Amino acid sequence: MIDGSTDPAPHGPRHRPPAQGVWQQFRRHKGAVAGAAVFTLTALGVLLGDAIYGVDPQYLDYLSRNQGISLAHPMGTDNLGRDTLARVLAGGQISLAVGVAAMVLSLTLGTFVGVMAGFFRRLDGPFMRFTDLFLALPVLPLLLVGIMLFRDPLRAALGPEAGIFILIVAVIGLTSWMQTARLVRGEVLAVKEREFVIAARGVGAAPRYIILRHVLPNALSPITVAATLGIANAIITESALSFLGLGFPSDFPTWGRLLFDGVPFLEIAPARVLWPGLAISLTVLSVNYMGDGLRDALDPRVRRH
Questions:
Q1: What would the pLDDT profile of 127-171 be if each residue is shown by its tens digit?
Q2: Structure pTM?
Q3: How far apart are CA 71 and CA 215, in angstroms?
Q4: Which residues, in sequence order, are bridge partners of residue 77?
Q5: How many whole angstroms separate alpha carbon 98 and alpha carbon 215?
Q6: Beta carbons within 8 Å of 289's beta carbon, 6+ residues apart
Q7: Which of 39, 180, 205, 252 could be 286's S-S partner, Cβ–Cβ 3.0 to 4.6 Å?
Q8: How many angstroms separate the CA atoms of 45 and 96, rounded?
Q9: Is 66 exposed, middle or buried (0-12, 13-18, 19+ CB in 10 A)?
Q10: Please, which residues have CB within 8 angstroms of residue 49's CB and are 6 or more apart in sequence?
């Protein structure tokens, strides 16, 4: 006897939300998961380390100069008796702040240039030639010239700490946006030819609405990857400038400045160079692994595979 009940729907593949698919693909990348864990621990350590460790990084103890690893000083001391662990934690705050701020500036400028060049045909040529011009410039001499020209005026106007911070962030951000612009332009060129963008143009939507509502959300993959890699690039660049003695002053430590200050005492206290160098290496390596994992996770072809 046939009743009036209907058969249940056939069991097919369950549709997963995009965010869930991205997270599952990211978890499969063991290096990205390990990198995210290391970067999270590093960020928490430098942000909360002062409150937990409780040692003033500027406290001078001349009787404990150039000491090695001990219970009182887990990473040793410098030539003025200052605790190296406290200075590494304080320097990490500045290095990460410079990395994030320079990444935001570079990402904003690169995304703007890439979207404008990719979406508006008449702007493509001028904007890309402008990008090629910046790519052809030698970055390190340009950084050195910018710092030498604007360091003293900014320090006099904003103070030694704020002036140098703004200058370092500006010179790094303004010399590292070109790769982001080219990546975003390529993605926008592909997105603007898709059906939903053509339909939006057909109903008379304004270009600003199409860019904000359709183009940018579908170009997040290269932007997100560029953001992660931009932090690593900014940390490396700031460390190089500080190592050359052109970054922050010695009483405003960063990881690069700690390396610069520790080189003359390498034979006496090698730990002074080891710990900030290890912090830079682990942070940059973890961010690069996170970028690789995000690139794979945000690629729909890799998720389908």
A1: 999 999 988 888 878 888 888 888 888 888 887 778 888 888 998
A2: 0.81
A3: 56
A4: 83
A5: 29
A6: 29, 31, 32, 34, 35
A7: 39
A8: 12
A9: middle
A10: 86, 89, 92
Q: How many residues does the chain have?
A: 305
CA distances in angstroms from 36 to 42, 137, 255, 272, 302, listed in the order given: 10, 33, 20, 26, 20
Q: Pseudo-torsion of CA 279, 282, 285, 289, nearest 10°?
A: -130
The Cα 143–Cα 217 span in angstroms is 33
The rounded distance, in Å, linking the Cα atoms of 263 and 66 is 13
Tokens representing 260? 């610069």
**Which residue in this structure is represented by tokens 């002074």?**
272
CB neighbourhood size of 63 (10 A): 7
Question: pLDDT tens digits for 264-299?
Answer: 888 887 888 888 889 999 999 998 888 888 877 776
Joined together, the tokens standing for residue 29 give: 């990348």
Please give the C-alpha separations between residue 1 and each of 6, 92, 225, in angstroms, as whole numbers.
14, 76, 61
Q: Phi first, then psi: what are they for 193, rounded to 5°?
A: -95, 5
Burial of 152: CB neighbours in 10 Å, binned 0-12, 13-18, 19+ = exposed
